[in-house]
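Ticket #301: bound-state structure for S-adenosylmethionine.
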Amino acid sequence: MPWLQLTLDAPRHEAQRLSDALEEAGALAVSLEAGDDEPIFEADWNATPPVWQQTRIVALFPEDTDIAQSMAMTASLLGLAEPPSYRTETIADQDWARVWMERWQPMHFGNNLWVVPSWLTPPDPEAVNLILDPGMAFGTGTHATTGMCLDWLAQHSPRGLDVIDFGCGSGILAIAALKLGARSALGTDTDPQALVTARENAERNEVLDRLTLCLPEAVPAGMAADVVLANILAPALVALAPTLIALTKPGGWLILSGILVSQVDEVVAAYAGHIDFEHQQREDWAMLTGQRRATDPLATI
Ligand SMILES: C[S@@+](CC[C@H](N)C(=O)[O-])C[C@H]1O[C@@H](n2cnc3c(N)ncnc32)[C@H](O)[C@@H]1O
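RESOLUTION: The complex was predicted; output attached.
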Protein backbone atom coordinates (compact mmCIF):
# COMPACT_ATOMS: atom_id res chain seq x y z
CA MET A 1 0.00 0.00 0.00
CA PRO A 2 1.45 3.41 -0.96
CA TRP A 3 1.61 6.26 1.57
CA LEU A 4 1.55 10.02 1.49
CA GLN A 5 4.70 11.49 2.97
CA LEU A 6 4.59 15.08 4.16
CA THR A 7 7.76 17.04 4.86
CA LEU A 8 8.13 20.41 6.52
CA ASP A 9 10.90 22.37 8.19
CA ALA A 10 10.48 24.07 11.55
CA PRO A 11 12.57 25.84 14.15
CA ARG A 12 13.85 23.34 16.71
CA HIS A 13 11.75 24.71 19.59
CA GLU A 14 8.54 24.21 17.58
CA ALA A 15 9.31 20.69 16.36
CA GLN A 16 7.83 18.65 19.19
CA ARG A 17 4.54 20.57 19.29
CA LEU A 18 4.26 20.31 15.50
CA SER A 19 4.97 16.62 15.63
CA ASP A 20 2.29 16.09 18.35
CA ALA A 21 -0.23 18.10 16.35
CA LEU A 22 0.48 16.17 13.14
CA GLU A 23 -0.18 12.93 14.98
CA GLU A 24 -3.42 14.25 16.37
CA ALA A 25 -4.34 15.33 12.83
CA GLY A 26 -3.99 11.77 11.55
CA ALA A 27 -0.30 11.15 10.84
CA LEU A 28 0.46 7.48 11.36
CA ALA A 29 4.13 8.04 12.10
CA VAL A 30 6.27 11.14 12.50
CA SER A 31 10.03 11.39 12.57
CA LEU A 32 12.32 14.32 13.27
CA GLU A 33 15.52 14.85 11.37
CA ALA A 34 18.29 17.41 11.51
CA GLY A 35 18.17 20.07 8.82
CA ASP A 36 21.12 18.37 7.10
CA ASP A 37 18.92 15.31 6.53
CA GLU A 38 20.72 13.07 9.01
CA PRO A 39 18.02 11.06 10.79
CA ILE A 40 18.44 11.51 14.55
CA PHE A 41 15.68 9.49 16.09
CA GLU A 42 12.52 7.79 15.04
CA ALA A 43 11.61 5.53 17.90
CA ASP A 44 12.33 7.20 21.24
CA TRP A 45 9.52 9.72 21.52
CA ASN A 46 10.29 10.50 25.14
CA ALA A 47 13.84 11.48 24.28
CA THR A 48 15.16 14.87 25.24
CA PRO A 49 14.48 17.26 22.33
CA PRO A 50 17.31 17.15 19.81
CA VAL A 51 19.90 19.91 19.72
CA TRP A 52 20.04 21.16 16.15
CA GLN A 53 18.50 24.52 15.26
CA GLN A 54 16.35 23.62 12.26
CA THR A 55 14.34 20.42 12.27
CA ARG A 56 12.86 18.53 9.35
CA ILE A 57 9.60 16.82 10.23
CA VAL A 58 8.52 13.86 8.12
CA ALA A 59 5.00 12.57 8.65
CA LEU A 60 3.32 9.59 7.07
CA PHE A 61 -0.38 9.60 6.20
CA PRO A 62 -2.65 7.05 4.48
CA GLU A 63 -2.59 7.72 0.74
CA ASP A 64 -6.24 8.87 0.59
CA THR A 65 -5.82 11.54 3.32
CA ASP A 66 -7.23 15.00 2.60
CA ILE A 67 -3.90 16.57 3.47
CA ALA A 68 -5.19 20.16 3.31
CA GLN A 69 -7.78 19.28 5.95
CA SER A 70 -5.19 17.56 8.14
CA MET A 71 -2.90 20.57 7.90
CA ALA A 72 -5.78 22.92 8.72
CA MET A 73 -6.40 20.83 11.85
CA THR A 74 -2.69 20.95 12.68
CA ALA A 75 -2.73 24.74 12.39
CA SER A 76 -5.84 24.98 14.53
CA LEU A 77 -4.32 22.75 17.24
CA LEU A 78 -1.29 25.03 17.33
CA GLY A 79 -3.33 28.23 17.27
CA LEU A 80 -1.86 29.26 13.90
CA ALA A 81 -3.83 31.35 11.41
CA GLU A 82 -2.64 29.12 8.56
CA PRO A 83 -0.67 25.88 8.19
CA PRO A 84 3.13 26.02 7.85
CA SER A 85 4.35 25.38 4.29
CA TYR A 86 4.94 21.74 3.46
CA ARG A 87 5.48 19.38 0.53
CA THR A 88 4.06 15.93 -0.10
CA GLU A 89 5.05 12.89 -2.15
CA THR A 90 3.63 9.42 -2.58
CA ILE A 91 5.93 6.64 -1.46
CA ALA A 92 5.77 2.88 -1.74
CA ASP A 93 5.05 0.59 1.17
CA GLN A 94 8.17 0.09 3.28
CA ASP A 95 6.61 -1.84 6.10
CA TRP A 96 5.39 1.43 7.59
CA ALA A 97 2.39 -0.30 9.12
CA ARG A 98 4.65 -2.38 11.33
CA VAL A 99 6.67 0.69 12.33
CA TRP A 100 3.50 2.58 13.11
CA MET A 101 1.93 -0.17 15.18
CA GLU A 102 5.12 -0.54 17.20
CA ARG A 103 4.97 3.19 17.85
CA TRP A 104 1.63 3.02 19.73
CA GLN A 105 2.01 1.49 23.14
CA PRO A 106 -0.38 1.23 26.11
CA MET A 107 -0.44 4.40 28.22
CA HIS A 108 -0.98 4.46 31.97
CA PHE A 109 -2.92 7.19 33.81
CA GLY A 110 -3.37 7.56 37.56
CA ASN A 111 -3.19 4.24 39.36
CA ASN A 112 -5.59 2.15 37.43
CA LEU A 113 -6.43 3.54 33.98
CA TRP A 114 -4.83 2.34 30.76
CA VAL A 115 -5.42 3.45 27.17
CA VAL A 116 -4.56 0.49 24.97
CA PRO A 117 -4.52 0.13 21.14
CA SER A 118 -6.89 -2.61 19.98
CA TRP A 119 -4.10 -4.79 18.56
CA LEU A 120 -2.28 -5.11 21.90
CA THR A 121 -3.15 -7.08 25.02
CA PRO A 122 -3.74 -4.82 28.04
CA PRO A 123 -0.69 -5.00 30.34
CA ASP A 124 -3.03 -5.27 33.35
CA PRO A 125 -6.28 -7.06 32.47
CA GLU A 126 -7.71 -6.22 35.93
CA ALA A 127 -7.22 -2.45 35.44
CA VAL A 128 -9.68 -0.08 33.75
CA ASN A 129 -8.71 -0.54 30.10
CA LEU A 130 -9.91 1.95 27.48
CA ILE A 131 -9.42 0.44 24.03
CA LEU A 132 -8.65 3.21 21.54
CA ASP A 133 -6.94 3.40 18.17
CA PRO A 134 -5.67 6.58 16.51
CA GLY A 135 -8.46 7.83 14.27
CA MET A 136 -10.26 10.73 12.68
CA ALA A 137 -10.60 12.92 15.79
CA PHE A 138 -8.26 14.47 18.35
CA GLY A 139 -7.80 12.47 21.53
CA THR A 140 -5.50 9.45 21.65
CA GLY A 141 -4.01 10.10 25.08
CA THR A 142 -0.55 10.90 23.72
CA HIS A 143 -1.03 14.66 23.92
CA ALA A 144 -0.14 16.35 27.22
CA THR A 145 -3.46 18.20 27.36
CA THR A 146 -5.45 14.96 27.18
CA GLY A 147 -3.02 13.11 29.45
CA MET A 148 -3.45 15.61 32.28
CA CYS A 149 -7.26 15.25 32.09
CA LEU A 150 -7.01 11.44 32.12
CA ASP A 151 -4.71 11.54 35.15
CA TRP A 152 -7.17 13.84 36.92
CA LEU A 153 -10.11 11.54 36.16
CA ALA A 154 -8.21 8.47 37.31
CA GLN A 155 -7.15 10.20 40.53
CA HIS A 156 -10.58 11.74 41.37
CA SER A 157 -12.91 8.85 40.78
CA PRO A 158 -16.03 10.07 38.94
CA ARG A 159 -17.94 6.99 40.22
CA GLY A 160 -21.68 7.66 40.30
CA LEU A 161 -21.29 11.19 38.88
CA ASP A 162 -22.62 12.91 35.77
CA VAL A 163 -19.87 14.15 33.46
CA ILE A 164 -19.73 16.50 30.45
CA ASP A 165 -16.86 16.32 27.93
CA PHE A 166 -17.05 19.65 26.06
CA GLY A 167 -15.01 19.36 22.85
CA CYS A 168 -15.03 15.58 23.08
CA GLY A 169 -13.01 14.77 19.93
CA SER A 170 -12.55 10.99 19.99
CA GLY A 171 -14.65 10.84 23.18
CA ILE A 172 -11.64 9.70 25.18
CA LEU A 173 -12.42 11.73 28.31
CA ALA A 174 -16.13 10.86 28.41
CA ILE A 175 -15.39 7.18 27.79
CA ALA A 176 -12.66 7.14 30.44
CA ALA A 177 -15.08 8.71 32.94
CA LEU A 178 -17.71 6.08 32.15
CA LYS A 179 -15.23 3.23 32.42
CA LEU A 180 -14.16 4.69 35.78
CA GLY A 181 -17.77 4.40 36.97
CA ALA A 182 -19.46 7.68 36.05
CA ARG A 183 -23.25 7.38 35.99
CA SER A 184 -23.64 9.23 32.68
CA ALA A 185 -21.63 11.33 30.27
CA LEU A 186 -22.46 13.83 27.58
CA GLY A 187 -19.92 14.49 24.83
CA THR A 188 -20.30 17.46 22.56
CA ASP A 189 -18.19 18.79 19.70
CA THR A 190 -18.59 21.28 16.86
CA ASP A 191 -17.05 18.69 14.50
CA PRO A 192 -19.66 16.13 13.36
CA GLN A 193 -16.86 13.65 12.47
CA ALA A 194 -15.73 13.74 16.10
CA LEU A 195 -19.21 12.68 17.20
CA VAL A 196 -19.13 9.74 14.76
CA THR A 197 -15.69 8.65 16.00
CA ALA A 198 -16.70 9.08 19.66
CA ARG A 199 -19.75 6.90 19.10
CA GLU A 200 -17.62 4.13 17.55
CA ASN A 201 -15.13 4.33 20.41
CA ALA A 202 -17.90 4.23 23.03
CA GLU A 203 -19.46 1.21 21.37
CA ARG A 204 -16.14 -0.64 21.31
CA ASN A 205 -15.72 0.14 25.03
CA GLU A 206 -19.31 -0.93 25.81
CA VAL A 207 -20.34 2.39 27.39
CA LEU A 208 -22.56 3.78 24.63
CA ASP A 209 -25.71 3.14 26.70
CA ARG A 210 -24.58 5.78 29.24
CA LEU A 211 -23.19 8.29 26.72
CA THR A 212 -25.09 11.06 24.93
CA LEU A 213 -23.38 12.69 21.95
CA CYS A 214 -24.59 15.88 20.30
CA LEU A 215 -23.55 19.17 18.74
CA PRO A 216 -23.14 22.03 21.25
CA GLU A 217 -26.39 23.69 20.19
CA ALA A 218 -28.28 20.49 21.05
CA VAL A 219 -27.05 20.26 24.66
CA PRO A 220 -30.29 20.26 26.69
CA ALA A 221 -31.14 23.65 28.20
CA GLY A 222 -30.55 23.82 31.94
CA MET A 223 -28.29 20.77 31.95
CA ALA A 224 -25.51 20.71 34.58
CA ALA A 225 -23.02 18.04 35.61
CA ASP A 226 -20.84 17.15 38.60
CA VAL A 227 -17.69 17.16 36.45
CA VAL A 228 -17.16 19.19 33.26
CA LEU A 229 -14.00 18.69 31.22
CA ALA A 230 -13.10 20.97 28.32
CA ASN A 231 -9.83 20.42 26.47
CA ILE A 232 -10.09 23.20 23.90
CA LEU A 233 -7.71 26.04 23.10
CA ALA A 234 -7.58 29.09 25.40
CA PRO A 235 -9.49 31.59 23.22
CA ALA A 236 -12.43 29.16 23.01
CA LEU A 237 -12.32 28.53 26.77
CA VAL A 238 -12.51 32.29 27.36
CA ALA A 239 -15.44 32.68 24.96
CA LEU A 240 -17.21 29.64 26.45
CA ALA A 241 -16.80 30.75 30.09
CA PRO A 242 -20.51 31.53 30.77
CA THR A 243 -21.56 28.27 29.10
CA LEU A 244 -19.04 26.09 30.94
CA ILE A 245 -19.77 27.72 34.31
CA ALA A 246 -23.50 27.13 33.83
CA LEU A 247 -22.89 23.49 32.83
CA THR A 248 -21.03 22.89 36.12
CA LYS A 249 -23.27 22.24 39.13
CA PRO A 250 -22.56 24.48 42.14
CA GLY A 251 -19.86 22.56 44.04
CA GLY A 252 -19.02 20.57 40.90
CA TRP A 253 -15.63 20.41 39.19
CA LEU A 254 -14.58 22.26 36.05
CA ILE A 255 -11.41 21.01 34.37
CA LEU A 256 -9.96 23.18 31.61
CA SER A 257 -7.09 21.99 29.41
CA GLY A 258 -5.52 22.97 26.08
CA ILE A 259 -4.10 26.17 27.61
CA LEU A 260 -0.54 27.29 26.96
CA VAL A 261 1.22 28.24 30.19
CA SER A 262 1.45 31.83 28.96
CA GLN A 263 -2.36 31.96 28.62
CA VAL A 264 -3.30 30.83 32.14
CA ASP A 265 -4.00 34.29 33.60
CA GLU A 266 -6.29 35.23 30.73
CA VAL A 267 -8.39 32.07 31.16
CA VAL A 268 -8.49 32.30 34.97
CA ALA A 269 -9.76 35.90 34.67
CA ALA A 270 -12.68 34.80 32.49
CA TYR A 271 -13.98 32.56 35.31
CA ALA A 272 -13.24 34.95 38.21
CA GLY A 273 -15.96 35.12 40.84
CA HIS A 274 -17.31 31.67 39.96
CA ILE A 275 -14.39 29.26 40.13
CA ASP A 276 -11.05 29.49 41.95
CA PHE A 277 -8.64 27.46 39.90
CA GLU A 278 -5.46 25.65 40.70
CA HIS A 279 -3.20 24.81 37.81
CA GLN A 280 -0.63 22.22 36.88
CA GLN A 281 1.71 22.00 33.93
CA ARG A 282 3.01 19.39 31.51
CA GLU A 283 5.41 20.41 28.73
CA ASP A 284 4.17 23.84 27.55
CA TRP A 285 0.58 23.12 28.57
CA ALA A 286 -1.43 23.97 31.67
CA MET A 287 -4.58 22.39 33.08
CA LEU A 288 -6.90 24.35 35.41
CA THR A 289 -9.01 22.53 38.00
CA GLY A 290 -11.53 24.12 40.34
CA GLN A 291 -14.93 23.75 41.93
CA ARG A 292 -17.76 26.11 41.11
CA ARG A 293 -18.62 28.11 44.20
CA ALA A 294 -21.53 26.50 46.02
CA THR A 295 -23.21 29.88 46.40
CA ASP A 296 -22.53 31.01 42.83
CA PRO A 297 -25.58 33.11 41.89
CA LEU A 298 -25.09 32.72 38.11
CA ALA A 299 -28.35 31.50 36.65
CA THR A 300 -28.24 28.30 34.64
CA ILE A 301 -28.30 29.16 30.95
C1 LIG B 1 -8.01 19.40 21.67
S1 LIG B 1 -9.40 18.51 21.11
C2 LIG B 1 -9.83 17.59 22.60
C3 LIG B 1 -10.37 16.21 22.34
C4 LIG B 1 -10.51 15.35 23.59
N1 LIG B 1 -11.52 15.88 24.49
C5 LIG B 1 -9.19 15.23 24.32
O1 LIG B 1 -9.11 15.69 25.46
O2 LIG B 1 -8.23 14.70 23.75
C6 LIG B 1 -10.60 19.81 21.07
C7 LIG B 1 -11.91 19.42 20.46
O3 LIG B 1 -12.81 20.51 20.71
C8 LIG B 1 -13.59 20.75 19.56
N2 LIG B 1 -14.02 22.15 19.63
C9 LIG B 1 -13.32 23.25 19.28
N3 LIG B 1 -14.05 24.36 19.56
C10 LIG B 1 -15.22 23.95 20.11
C11 LIG B 1 -16.39 24.60 20.61
N4 LIG B 1 -16.50 25.93 20.59
N5 LIG B 1 -17.40 23.85 21.09
C12 LIG B 1 -17.30 22.50 21.12
N6 LIG B 1 -16.24 21.82 20.65
C13 LIG B 1 -15.20 22.52 20.15
C14 LIG B 1 -12.69 20.38 18.40
O4 LIG B 1 -13.45 20.02 17.26
C15 LIG B 1 -11.88 19.20 18.97
O5 LIG B 1 -12.47 17.97 18.66
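RESOLUTION NOTES: Residues 137-139, 146, 149, 165-169, 172-173, 188-191, 194, 216, 231-232, 236, 240, 258 surround S-adenosylmethionine (CB under 6 Å).
TICKET STATUS: resolved
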